[in-house]
Each structure stands twice: as structure tokens, then as C-alpha cells.
Amino acid sequence: MTETQKKFMKEAIRMAHEGMEAGHGGPFGCVIVKDNQIVGRGYNSVLKTKDPTAHAEVVAIRDACSRLNHFQLEGCDIYTSCEPCPMCLGAIFWARPNKVYYACTKEDAAEAGFDDDFIYQEIDLPLEKRSIPMVSLLREESLQAFSAWKEKEDKTEY
Ligand SMILES: [Zn+2]
Question: Of 3, 21, 57, 111, which is the active-site residue?
């Protein structure tokens, strides 16, 4: 661990405190770094924004992408005060940063009442066995959007 890495992680942890103390949400903070500069930051804002997806990492990814004016985080590192939940992990993979540094583990989060283990268990289940039912409707009709995408000539691949 370098002093620079330590500095950025301390900032992510500071954000975790800030968001929690302001009543915005749980104690989670995140900063996104590119070329040694913070280009995005976020803390959990689920309560404040009434948005269940407003986890620190998602908020920081949106902030960074907005500032960088790009839908990917090439060349960026993510510093998060806690190991990402499955939703944030998915968002991180879509954003394609270089690396993720995390401080607390998901076991630490579970200990504090933020247990995401049930989501990992749900992912492993067949769709029909999940606690939230998933039912496929109108597949053929919806496939037309994919056909149109495949044929679209002026698209940006990502
Ligand atoms: Zn999350």
C-alpha cells in the first residue's frame, strides 16, 4: 500500500462518515481516481434520495462518468470503504475501471446489519426458485429490438 493509495482510501472512509452523519444513508463512501486526481465521489444516499440504487459506488460512478463525459471508467481506480455488494459489483464491471480497492469486507458489513449474502444466494438459484418471481413475457416481440440493434449502423458499441 502506497501513501497515495492510503490517502484516497482515507477519503472514501471520510465520505462514509460524512454521508452517514448527514443522514443520507448507511456508512459507505467511495472515490474514483484517475491520474492521481479524484474524478468522482459518492456516499450512500439511499435514505436521502429515496433511491435503493444510490449506493456509494453507484453514486461515485455516476459522478465520475458525468465529469469525464464518458460511459466507462478507463484508467480509473475505485476506492470504496467496503467490499461492493452484487449490484455495485455489476455496475463496476459495466464501468470497466482498472482496479478496485476496498477497506472493509462484506462480512464486516453483514456484522453491521448490511448483509448482501442473500443476493449472492438468489443469483445462484434458477429463476423460478427466486424469492422475487421472474416471469418471461412477450420474448418474440422484444427480440425485435435486438434485431434492430444488430442492424443499426450508427451505433456506439460498448
Ligand atoms: Zn452496493
Answer: 57
